């Protein structure tokens, strides 16, 4: 296995436009999420999840130039949350419709989460698929989603995401 490789490290000069918000309004929902850089230089994904109009999720994603990741076995994320459950997602190709997803519970303290590739399950629009888990050959997109089935405010502070 290789040493750690940065996928994205937030800092005060990060181009936040490299990250895209996808709210449930794409399906008629009323949830609102946003991504900002805080004074410490960390990315802050925050907002409100609404269940109105069949809503229920907020997602932030970052598209990458497709890279080979076959010498790695896990994602490592340094973050600080609000105690709520989120999911980290990735895609191996830019035209791939499904994502690979891993649920985690955030802490109100800084934490480092390790996500083994082999534990990332394939999903499409929230439904699990009968496909193999993430094989870890290529990486084209990373994302974080909140979709807990309840109306709630959320805040997740992200320092960095890297490969191990």
UniProtKB/TrEMBL annotation:
Segments forming domain NADH:ubiquinone oxidoreductase intermediate-associated protein: 8-158
SUPFAM superfamilies in UniProt: Galactose-binding domain-like (SSF49785)
Pfam families, sorted: CIA30
Q: InterPro entries under this entry?
A: Galactose-bd-like_sf, NADH-UbQ_OxRdtase-assoc_prot30, NDUFAF1
Superkingdom is Bacteria
Q: Say which family it is in.
A: Belongs to the CIA30 family.
Protein's recorded name: Complex I intermediate-associated protein 30 (CIA30)
Lineage of this protein's species?
Bacteria, Pseudomonadati, Bacteroidota, Flavobacteriia, Flavobacteriales
